[in-house]
Amino acid sequence: MRIYSAIQPTGCITIGNYIGAVKNWLAMQDGNECIFSIANQHALTVRQDPQEFRARTLSFFAQFLACGLDPEKSILYVQSHVPQHSELAWILSCMTYIGELDRMTQFKDKSRKNEDNINAGLLTYPVLMAADILLYKADVVPVGKDQKQHLELTRDIAIRFNNRFGETFVVPEPYIPKQGAKITSLQNPLEKMSKSDKDANAMVSIIDPPDAIMRKFKRAVTDSDNRIVFSEDKPGISNLLSIYSAFTGESIEEAEKRFEGKGYGDFKLAVGEAVVDALTPIRNKYAEYLSDKAELERIMKEGAEKASRIAERTLQKVKKKIGFII
Ligand code: TRP
């Protein structure tokens, strides 16, 4: 199967992204044709400081590699290096209705939160996402729940194009990991852990230093009844149990047993230590990759070339079908 997914280079890659997305990608690398990108064009829908934006894109790419995404197995690239995305996005935007775009939950959400910057890109964002996916004829797209609506629109656009111009695009299936522990904010355990949370204590980045990780877990919001059990009315403790289980491989039940009779303080330390242990090799590899920018950029460009070859084939087909002279 061909698998496509992407992540925007905003905020930082959190342990929530790692457990919910990156770990799934790692598992998919063997036996599938995987393409993963850094969606920096999507990130442009929010104002970016150029210097920071460039650094963050490099950093995200280095984190991909440090996590074990392997350029020998998968295609790893940065969206803006493959101009076919913008080209196809224009064509598809002329086949997508404004009514379809302005009913997207995320557009409405983001417009409400960024009243001073409701730019056209914010509206056409899902068309660019459709172009990402359709260029590569992806069968499966692993995404979070919040992207499901965009994927449905991608399918509608693909079907519409195929009906009008003949079989061209593969209609992709979403893959939304079922149980795949939802990691929530350490400060507000009822909300998803956000990679752009302004409160640094609310999330743990996969490259946070050990002392920061320990501090954040010590300060994690829990409740006052001091029982370490997974339950709906204990969102803070349940979240910590999920994190512990994801990083140690121990089941939630086993973890509950292990911490029976222990206090929250000890438990938080143990969760912090488990996360530090698991992330240390990643942080070390990350530093190594980042210390050689030339090599990092070489890997990046090589990925873009591979991606571009596939994308160009699809784009040529599209252009021919719609009547562009090629
Ligand atoms: N919009 C996605 C997000 O914010 C990122 C993304 C861009 C993406 N292009 C994609 C995800 C293509 C899957 C497929 O999470």
Number of individual domains = 2
Tally of individual helices: 13
General form: globular
Low-confidence spans: none
**Mean of residue pLDDT?**
96
The CATH superfamily title of the largest domain: HUPs
How far apart are the termini? 30 Å
Proportion of beta-strand residues: 5-15%
Largest sheet: 3 strands, parallel
Query: What's the helical proportion of residues?
Result: 55-70%
The SSE string, one letter per element, is: EHEHHEHHHHEHEHHHHH
Spatial extent as radius of gyration:
21 Å
Going by CATH, the architecture of the largest domain would be 3-Layer(aba) Sandwich
- Tell me the structural class: mainly alpha
What is the highest CATH level, the class of the largest domain? Alpha Beta
How many individual β-strands? 5
What ligand molecules are bound, each kind once?
tryptophan
Which key terms come to mind for this protein?
mainly alpha; Rossmann fold; two-stranded parallel sheet; 5 strands; binds tryptophan
Give a brief description.
The protein is mainly alpha-helical. The protein is 55% helix and 7% strand. It is globular, with a radius of gyration of 21 Å.
Could you please describe the fold and organization of this structure?
The protein has 326 residues and is mainly α. The chain contains 13 helices and five strands. It has helices spanning 15-28, 40-43, 50-67, 84-93, 98-101, 105-113, 120-135, 148-165, 210-218, 235-248, 252-258, 264-290, 293-322, and strands spanning 2-7, 33-38, 75-78, 140-142, 173-175. The protein has a three-stranded parallel beta sheet with strand order 1-2-3. Strands 4-5 form a two-stranded parallel sheet. Strand 4 (140-142), helix 8 and strand 5 form a beta-alpha-beta unit. Helix 3 (50-67) crosses helix 12 (264-290), helix 4 crosses helix 7 (120-135) and helix 7 (120-135) packs across helix 8 (148-165). The model has no long low-confidence stretch (mean pLDDT 96). The site of tryptophan has 13 residues, from strand 1 and helix 7.
